[in-house]
Write a structure and sequence with these properties.
Layout (H helix, E strand, L loop, with lengths): L10 H4 L38 E4 L5 E6 L5 E8 L13 H8 L11 H5 L6 E6 L4 E8 L3 H13 L5 H20 L4 H12 L13 H6 L2 H11 L5 E7 L3 H12 L22 E7 L6 E7 L8 H12 L5 H9 L3 E10 L4 E9 L5 H17 L4 H18 L3 H15 L4 H10 L3 H11 L6 E7 L55 E4 L5 E6 L5 E8 L14 H7 L10 H11 L2 E6 L4 E8 L3 H13 L5 H18 L3 H14 L14 H4 L2 H11 L5 E7 L3 H12 L23 E5 L6 E8 L8 H12 L5 H8 L7 E6 L6 E8 L4 H17 L4 H19 L2 H13 L6 H10 L3 H11 L6 E6 L1 H11 L4 E4 L12
Parallel strand pairs: 2-6, 7-11, 13-17, 18-22, 18-23
Antiparallel strand pairs: 1-2, 3-5, 3-6, 4-5, 8-10, 8-11, 9-10, 12-13, 14-16, 14-17, 15-16, 19-21, 19-22, 20-21
Length: about 950
């Protein structure tokens, strides 16, 4: 199901890809392609119960545990019943800022200990703040369970906050505000305007991320009082899932959490009835709005209400998948929107159903509002069809099944249900409740809640001189005030090292299981690999071709490979795009395709009981695409709209420019999704030629993973592709990385940008290079996690960015290493120097073994967690096969990483990553930082964003 942690869906998530196009046959139709539409199996998808044990400690802490001996990991989660709605008046964003502070010191743990205890042993940790909840969660190798319980109890009972960490994290949160609100096209509307307009009385109307003014107003005393008020045993749930001994776990929980005293005082009252007010409309204006956005919101019901299931199904019919009503109406048929969706969002006290659309270029907001209203009116006026109802239920059920695949996923489902209802069985009832929804129920809730006299409509448009940016409401009344918070209590300080309670020792390791991969070739040359993973009834297939976006260079049109892949699911010789989307959703499947720089992959996954039908549908879209001119034209328009949004954001612009800086005019340099010039020039003939020449069984690898035997997989592969005989093959492009080019310093000027993106990029290595593992560990050392060097220097020590990372992109030819951060505009010169210094440090000085050990553990832990999911396992197997590497590397990965020495890292960095080779690309408001930057780099190139030309190596 769609995420429930936030009241509005993320617009950035809606715009993460460019659209696909529909189709006309590029090759002869396969013999079985004219079969009747796929029918779902009669047996329903079975979602097993979560299966947690429950108990309550004397201090009121509720504990839920679930053992899973099939994993080598364990997750520890603490869900606190405090969220953004509990921010005191004048302190909006306080719960979120406090989430950051909870990663600092405790009485017995020094600063950043949580990263040492998780990332440094191959685990992960994070936290999130919603309107009603703040949760903290870690996944670590099972032998570290006792340590994590000790640590979580420490920060519940003895958090240390000092002025230094308080100021640093406040600066980090400000950078997060600039990143999520000021530098994204729809951030201001989504996080500042819409909620304040929708809600009239409720504390939900305040932005969860807060405001700069409220953040600046916070004091240390506020922090300590907030912790004393809300972070207490009876206001939390402890959830543990994974591989553990139950008796030992219970004893550890009693030992570490049982002694935390529960205060003898009530929690602040916080329940304000929301009136929502009458139907109304508003238009907001903001900077950097590339396409208009519209939204209509209807008040509905709180989470713990019997009508939630019917509203979930209604929401699914409106916007789940490409067969949904909003997509079909606004995007596919009318072509007035580049994106259209909905979200059924319920909180503890209120609920809303949001519908929204990003309009296509040249289409008006009023057209969008009218179309949204029309689709909701259809739900009121006539019952949904039996087919639509079944598709929505199946899709929601399949999503729930996928959510159970990992221990942290199961714990999350339980935790959210507990926060919203207090009932641990509520999560298990979700699917039965959805299955019980009837067409009459859907129409009833539409008529009851989604009426015109309850609609709250909003437009969000580009600000102009005539319509300047709309003022943002920052002052709100709230039911919780600073006076309601508990006294701060005794301030806790970090004990001297010799006086601290020592950490528990890790237990015996639980080794992850590496599956044996079976292999066979079909007569037509297709390589078939099978990685069985028994357990949940899920199966995945990945069909990859030696054909990527680098091969666009042969025709001189960037975007052809991407369009070819995207359009596969938009129509075949016997199926239209709506028919394909309907069948995918009827099966509860996921079928799609994407083109990377070297390879194109078509993927399919579904519950095991319908996987044969899923494979049949996958085969049809691969072998018999239609590529109709009408659908190509529609998707070209939609893709251009998506590109306009992408080119309005500092981060994506910097990434596109960095590729040109590193590869100039070589095939690897061109944007894979296409350019404003190339996209309109792509023809149906281009797609047909690419498909017929590059989609060949002889250069294809098919990987199965999940609940399937090798014999069953081979039979499906033979049935789907065994009789495929393709025509003449086209030769892949040669030398895609091209010759090395001189480094550049480029500033792309975006006046008024809320934040700047700073990228350093340089040529790296091929995946088959003998220095792959030294380079992999070097990247991890520099920027591969929260506790890596870049994050330590830029975020943790200086608070200059919400995140600073590096990426090693290895390819068939020389790939790219990039290091990046987004920061406030005035900090650009400092952040640029810090990034370049860390690149230089890799070859200048050797890392210590003590520094390398945690970075290696991070890599190994991430690899191990991928092995535990069906799609992750398939991706790892495919990654070896496509580069011609031995499949035995799957079993030796840990040894290969652990075998890397400091000397190997230093030598590899000196050879492949000299800092003098790095290009620097900065996108932001140049008026703020250009003078200081030019003093260091007098040859800096300055390109106005309005003049940017991503077709050219010169970028202008």
């Amino acid at each position: 199901m769609k995420s429930r942690l936030f009241a509005a869906a993320s617009i950035s998530a809606l715009l993460v890809g460019v659209a696909a196009c529909a189709t006309a046959p590029a090759v002869d139709v396969a013999p079985d392609a004219r079969a009747a539409p796929v029918e779902a199996a009669a047996s329903p998808i079975v979602v097993p119960p979560l299966g947690f044990r429950e108990r309550t400690l004397p201090n009121g802490l509720k504990v839920y545990t679930a053992r899973d001996a099939a994993t080598s990991n364990v997750t520890v989660q603490v869900w606190y019943k405090v969220g953004a709605k509990d921010d005191p008046e004048g302190r909006s964003g306080f719960a979120h800022m406090f989430e950051h502070l909870m990663f600092k010191a405790t009485r017995n743990l020094p600063q950043e200990a949580f990263d040492r205890l998780t990332e440094d042993v191959g685990g992960s940790n994070n936290a999130s703040t919603g309107l009603d909840v703040t949760n903290y969660f870690e996944t670590v190798p099972a032998q570290h369970l006792e340590r994590m319980l000790f640590a979580e109890a420490e920060r519940m009972g003895s958090l240390v906050v000092d002025e230094t960490s308080f100021e640093s994290e406040r600066d980090v949160v400000k950078e997060e505000f600039r990143l999520r609100v000021l530098s994204t096209p729809y951030g201001r509307f989504q996080r500042l305007h819409s909620q304040a307009f929708i809600f009239q009385d409720s504390p939900y109307r305040r932005p969860g991320i807060g405001s700069i003014a409220d953040l600046d107003a916070a004091t240390m005393d506020d922090v300590l009082r907030f912790h004393e008020t809300f972070y207490r045993p009876d206001n939390a749930y402890l959830i543990v899932a994974g591989n553990f001994d139950q008796a030992r776990l219970d004893a550890w929980i009693d030992q570490y959490f049982g002694g935390i005293e529960n205060p003898d005082r009530p929690l602040p009252e916080n329940h304000v009835p929301e009136t929502f007010g009458p139907a109304r409309e508003a238009t907001f204006y903001g900077p950097n709005v590339p396409l208009p956005m519209v939204q209509i919101t209807w008040p509905t019901v709180p989470y713990d209400h019997p009508d939630r299931a019917a509203l979930d199904v209604l929401d699914g019919i409106l916007s789940t998948g490409e067969s949904s009503r909003l997509y079909q109406s606004l995007v596919y048929r009318q072509q007035i929107a580049t994106q259209a969706s909905s979200s059924n969002s319920q909180q503890q006290q209120v609920g809303v159903l949001n519908t929204f659309a990003i309009m296509s270029e040249g289409k008006t907001p009023d057209e969008g509002l009218a179309a949204l209203r029309a689709e909701v009116a259809r739900l009121r006026d006539e019952p949904v069809t039996a087919a639509e109802l079944a598709e929505a239920k199946t899709e929601l059920t399949a999503q729930a099944l996928r959510g159970l695949e990992t221990i942290d996923g199961r714990a999350f489902q339980l935790g959210y249900a507990l926060i919203m209802t207090g009932d641990p069985t509520a999560a298990d009832r979700d699917i039965p409740n959805i299955q019980a929804v009837s067409a009459e129920d859907v129409q009833r809730v539409a008529r009851q809640y989604l009426t015109d006299d309850r609609a709250i409509a909003m437009r969000y448009l580009q600000a102009t001189d005539e319509n300047p940016a709309s003022p943002v409401q920052e002052a709100f009344t709230a039911p919780v005030t600073l006076a309601d918070l508990a006294p701060p209590g005794e301030r806790v300080t970090l004990l001297p090292e010799g006086q601290r309670t020592p950490l528990p020792e890790p237990g015996p390791a639980v080794d992850p299981a590496t599956p044996v991969v079976a292999e066979r070739r079909l007569a037509n040359g297709m390589r078939v690999l099978v990685a069985p993973k028994p357990g949940l009834p899920l199966v995945s297939a990945r069909l990859s071709f030696d054909a990527g976006t680098a091969d666009d260079a042969a025709g001189g049109k960037p975007g052809v490979a991407n369009f070819t892949a995207s359009l596969l699911t938009q129509g075949t010789r016997t199926r239209t795009a709506p028919q394909i989307a309907t069948e995918i959703e009827r099966l509860g499947a996921d079928i799609g395709a994407g083109a990377g720089v070297d390879f194109t992959t078509v993927f399919a996954s579904s519950p095991a009981n319908v996987f044969p039908q899923t494979m049949a549908l996958m085969a049809d879209v691969v072998r018999n695409p239609a590529f109709t001119a009408e659908d190509l034209d529609r998707e070209q328009t939609r893709t251009l709209d998506g590109l306009r949004v992408q080119l309005s954001q500092p981060g994506p612009v910097a990434g596109l420019a960095a590729a040109r800086a590193v590869y100039a005019d070589a095939p690897y340099a061109a944007p894979g999704s296409g350019t404003p010039t190339s996209i309109p020039s792509i023809s149906r003939d281009d797609l047909v030629a690419f498909h017929s020449g590059m989609y060949q069984p002889s250069n294809a690898t098919l990987v199965f993973s999940g609940d399937i035997t090798p014999e069953a997989a081979y039979a499906l592969a033979e049935q789907a592709f065994g009789d495929w005989r393709a025509g003449p093959a086209r030769t892949p492009v040669a030398d895609p990385a091209g010759p090395a080019v001189a480094p550049r310093v480029i500033v792309i000027d975006q006046p008024g940008a809320g934040q700047a993106a700073v990228y350093a990029a340089m040529r790296g290595i091929a995946r088959t290079d003998e220095d792959y593992f030294p380079m992999l560990v070097a990247n991890g050392l520099m920027g591969g996690g929260f506790s890596a060097r870049l994050s330590q220097e830029i975020r943790i020590k200086r608070g200059l960015s919400y995140g600073a990372y590096s990426s090693l992109s290895t390819r068939e030819d020389e790939g790219m290493l990039s290091a990046s951060a987004q920061t406030r505009n005035d900090a650009v010169p400092q952040v640029a120097e810090l990034i370049l210094a860390e690149i230089a440090r890799l070859s200048a000085t050797g890392a210590t073994e003590a520094e390398l050990a945690p970075r290696k553990a991070t890599l190994i832990g991430s690899f191990g967690r991928s092995l535990e999911t069906v799609d992750g396992l398939g991706g790892l197997v495919a990654g070896l096969a496509l580069y011609g590497l031995p499949l035995s590397d799957l079993a030796t990965y840990d040894d290969d990483v652990n075998g890397v020495t400091p000397a190997q890292i230093q030598a590899a960095a000196a050879e492949h990553l000299p800092a003098s080779n790095a290009s620097l690309v900065i996108v932001g408001d140049a008026a703020v930082f250009l003078e200081a930057l030019r003093a260091k780099y007098p040859d800096v190139e300055v390109i106005p964003l309005t003049d940017l030309n991503i077709d050219s190596a010169a970028l202008r």
